[in-house]
Amino acid sequence: MKRRLALAVATAAALTTLVGCGALDKAMDCVATADAIATSVDRLQQAASNASNDPTQLNEALNDISTELDKLQDTTDNADLSKAVDDLTKGVESVRTAVKGGDTTPDIKPITDAATEIGKVCTPG
Questions:
Q1: Burial status of residue 77 (CB atoms within 10 A of its CB: 0-12, 13-18, 19 or more)
Q2: Helices in 1-125 by DSSP H: which ranges?
Q3: What's the pLDDT tens digit per position in 64-83?
Q4: DSSP state of 54
Q5: Which of 38, 43, 91, 120 could lock 61 by a disulfide, CB 3.0 to 4.6 Å apart?
């Protein structure tokens, strides 16, 4: 968590010198939302590991990711970011379908891959 906060602060500092206020706000929204998605994906990974004990955790983690994706989709006009958001959305829906079908060990790799891509797109440099 400290690493993510440090990344957000460093990103804010770098963006302050590179972009105007409107773009800075949008970029900071991207960083904050990417961080929230990363946290949600971490929770999803933990929930997937414990799915046989409590399958409701999977749905809660998927709902968290969907909420963050909605926020991010509303704040972006970046084509690369939109693609990563679309990929993550497809991954979330695939896992939802698997869980509804009774799969207690769904493949979450497409979600983690897309979340990593969002992190890359939202990090300047």
A1: exposed
A2: 2-18, 21-49, 56-75, 79-100, 109-122
A3: 888 888 877 776 677 887 88
A4: -
A5: 43
